[in-house]
Amino acid sequence: MKIVIANDLQELGRAAGKAAAEFIKQAISANGTAAIILATGTSQFETLNQLVAEPDIDWSKVVVFHLDEYIGVSECHPASFRNYLRQRFIEKVPRLKAIYLINGEVDAREECGRLEKLIERHTIDVALVGIGENGHLAFNDPPADFETERPYIVVALDEPCRTQQLGEGWFNTLEDVPKTAISMSIKQILKSRHIICSVPDSRKATAVRNSLEQPVTNRQPASILQTHPDCTLFLDKKSAALLSAQTLAGTT
């Protein structure tokens, strides 16, 4: 795993967004198309800002999937990840080849099946992901399912995860935060050729340390990124604050 430490959130976002853009352009050049996964949440603000500003990406050749969505939340709700992607990505780029959003307002298992048929047609060139305060990857909260082959699964959201969503201002009370979601599975994320993981802020520092410096375990789901052949972790100084000197020695 490659680790890049930026001075601040803006620098982190610029670096991660530029890296994602290069992978997209390389895929289009090699194959005529690119398939990507987009994450949401506050950790992705600056990365997406940079990505949509990057020149020379032919978005008409890009297919987009996204990581997760709450079950039972309307698309017009401020916390909806479909709403997030429309505002921060879809409306800011030219017409895409395709974008497959997760609908959390229909039968969840049927929706997982629909998405499975779609994503099985594609090899993902680059996945943009983050790490949760509880170490989750997408909405795969601990103990995450490391074994399922299904691309999308229905998951239960634990209290630390739901508390994070409340703390980031997406909901008014903890009771408002849904307890279930549709999430891309761990194995599906790991099928991506390249993974770009953006993790800013001091509140993620413990999760970052545990994901990098502890053994791979489903109790720390993002630790699985250690096994991926081409994953770059973009941190700022705050999220990297608890890393050991040994880990820091290998950073750029």
Structure, explained:
It is a single chain. The protein has 252 residues and is of the alpha/beta class. The chain has a single domain, classed as Rossmann fold, CATH 3.40.50. It has eight helices and ten strands. The mean pLDDT is 96.
Number of helices: 8
What does the largest sheet look like?
Answer: 7 strands, parallel
**What is the CATH architecture term?**
3-Layer(aba) Sandwich
What's the level 1 CATH class?
Alpha Beta
When the domains are counted, the total is 1
* Helix-strand string: EHEHEEHEHEEHEHEHEH
Mean pLDDT: 96
Structure at a glance:
By secondary structure, the chain is α/β, with parallel strands linked by helices. It is built from 8 helices and 10 strands.
